[in-house]
Amino acid sequence: MNETTLPQSLIEKLRFANRVVVLTGAGISAESRIPTFRDALTGLWAKYKPEELATPEAFISNPKLVWDWYQWRCSLVSHASPNPGHNALVQMEKHVPHFTLVTQNVDSLHARAGNNHVLELHGNISRTRCFQENTIVTSWKEDGQSPPRCPSCGGMLRPDVVWFGESLPQDVLEQAAKASAACDVFFSIGTSAVVFPAASLVYEAMRNRAVTVEINPTPTAQAGELSYALQGPAGEILPALIEETWG
Ligand code: BV8
Which residue has the CA at smallest separation from atom 14 of ligand 1? Predict the structure, then answer.
């Protein structure tokens, strides 16, 4: 059901919840002025679809284009700060006995806001790895090459994110699936719910008869299947939800 006010029944369930899982997507960082994944294609990249750039094939065929796109996004992230939506989830973690935060985002904003133990399904744009050796690389020679080269094997460097067609970190996905299958309340916040397997976590929660909640200004295709679909920006809804639930 679509709601713009906060349903009292949800407040009650959240107040007494023992296990809560929150899945976030790019929308929760939109109010930190980071374009959402599907809005991040402006300027040089406007003519591409994100699925066309966030793939190993795209990187192999045009490494500079893909590397520069991530460098541009990195600069946006470095100038961004957590917003009230991120901060509200830090408060939620304090109130809920067993709280699991799972994110598809690669921008570190949940950790910077103060959430502990964030499960990053799709990696993190602040880390760089060797495309050949798959090892994390922390320093390299800036000789104007884009992408820069690995100091140990000379191969191209790439962002430490999960591209389409690449497997998610198995341990992280297993922790997220386990928590989703055991939770009382599952939130899906700021995600278009079209990327898998992240978008399948809510069904693990449903199988466990959890209360399921979407927070998004635009109801997603999953909205009709959920217990609640709260229509609005996370930066407004989440602080109000924390305030009404725990005062
Ligand atoms: C894989 C890289 C095994 C980093 C990303 C079923 C099972 C398994 C795989 C598949 C499957 N079906 C299809 C697949 C393949 C594929 C897939 O899902 N394709 C889609 C397009 C159909 N999945 C994969 O390839 C995954 N790999 O499963 O490995 C495998 C191996 C080989 C072959 C097959 C399978 C890998 C998926 C990860 C891909 N990498 N990112 C980066 O560059 O960021 S995913 C990318 O999309 C981002 O990480 C992003 O986080 C993610 C999801 O997007 P959203 O976060 O939802 O962002 P979006 O812009 O779409 O939406 C924003 C939402 O926010 C909107 O709804 C908007 O209304 C809302 N919003 C806006 N403002 C606000 C707001 N909400 C709240 N408040 C606001 N203020």
Answer: 196
